[in-house]
Here is the input.
Amino acid sequence: MDITFKDVTYIYQANSPFAHKALENLSFHIPSGSFVAVIGHTGSGKSTLIQHLNGLITPTEGTVQIGDYQINSDKKPENLKELRSRVGVVFQYPEHQLFDETVAKDIAFGPKNFGVSESEIQRRIKEIVPAVGLDEALLGRSPFDLSGGQMRRVAIAGVLAVKPEILVLDEPTAGLDPRGQREIMDMFSNLHKEQGLTTVLVTHSMEDAVKYADHVIIMNKGTKYMEGTPEEVFTQREALNKVQLDVPEMIQFINAFEERFGKTIPFKRQTVQALAKEIQQALKGAGSDE
Amino acid sequence: MNNAIIIGQYVPGNSLVHRLDPRMKITIIFLFVIFVFFANNVVSYSILTAFAIITVFITKISLRFILKGLTPVWFLIIFTFILHLIVTKEGTVLVELLGFKVYSGALIQGFAISLRFFLLILITSLLTLTTTPIEITDAIEDMLHPLKKIKFPVHELALMMSISLRFIPTLLQETDKISKAQASRGVDFRTGPIKERIKAIVPLLVPLFVSAFKRAEELAMAMEARGYQGGEGRSKLRQLKIKKIDIFVLVFFLLVIAGLFITRNYS
Here is the structure.
């Protein structure tokens, strides 16, 4: 499903001394099937943005269009529940939402609410549990007996079991160890490709954005600061530094390399191995010149 | 959510009311609450109402914001008014509605009691609107100090109060976060039959309790790690001091009360 924001403004606690503008005149378009990274500093409006995606909050001004569902200031769609079954949101620290007696029941909670049949739920659990890297033996345990990393995976499985078409991820790997981070991100990336999902990833990690996203939106103080492909956005170092963001390590490295050796290597999201080869060739070329 | 309820919320500011010594504020409000019950005619009620409205005006918090925040209380006030209309049978009959005789005395009394109720709530909500929770607990600890002589755990009580006040916004935030997460998983908190809605609270309450207990444990650990041992020999960073302005405000308030007592016997 396509996602379109048109002049969206959102004000928290409007008409009170605490009124606070979280989003201002935000417009963008995310075509169906893309993997978008939303990046910005704390307080830039990222979390507010994603709450618009499944109608948890309605814009103070402007329109949000998700597929055929339109949300604007004076009307929420009547089939909000249907929208929520098609837009899955993994919130920050999603393990805080676990509550049921067993892991299996907690994963089944979402699909049950959306009216999925019991046999279909069981089928989905069998499919999803190994996909998120959980052991089936854990299904009968209480979610509160698990480790932090396992709880995170259970919570993610609970969202995936609904089989959403749009997957919204709010810093899904925060607080995990590096290996867990990589595993979870790879899992999302595979899902995105296999099931043709539209994925919106909110992250602080430039590395993740470069590695997984095909479109990047940089937020600053509730407005869109930059937008484009990772190649376009991440090569503009000065503009990024202005909003206290760094360019990804690989681009930093390429820049440093270019400065030192006076050779240019274009950044095109190559792998580290590919980059090593290019450097080797560039330097070899230099060697044969002398 | 919860935008509508302002009871217990603090609105930062730098007005005279904000800067007043919290002990003085508590004392004045305590006295006001008592003396509201002494008003008995138009003039004495007007004096108290004027005092309350002027105080609101000085805080620079918009009256509209406060009135909107008292929405849940409006129901009680109106209920009181209607109850008086029905029950009181004094004075002359004004109108007859659906077989009910509405007496003039009932109208006056209903209005007076509702006004009294309104003033009570308005002035007490001003305390939390203009005083930080820390100031309130400091003031209460200080004012209860004499009770220490009879082994009353004043410091512990104050600490419990400040911790619970401190965690109200945190818990509200947590509630908001979890209810949004569960709403995304298809829970409907707002519509549907009552039975379903009560059932929908379980996925909200369980995570809330889990995280509250976890927080409590972490807080206790952090306090112990920093050597907290209770109130014995503990000094304060913020010392409360009565200033000239506090005395001035108290004198002004006493004048208002004197005015109340003088006008009380009119008519």
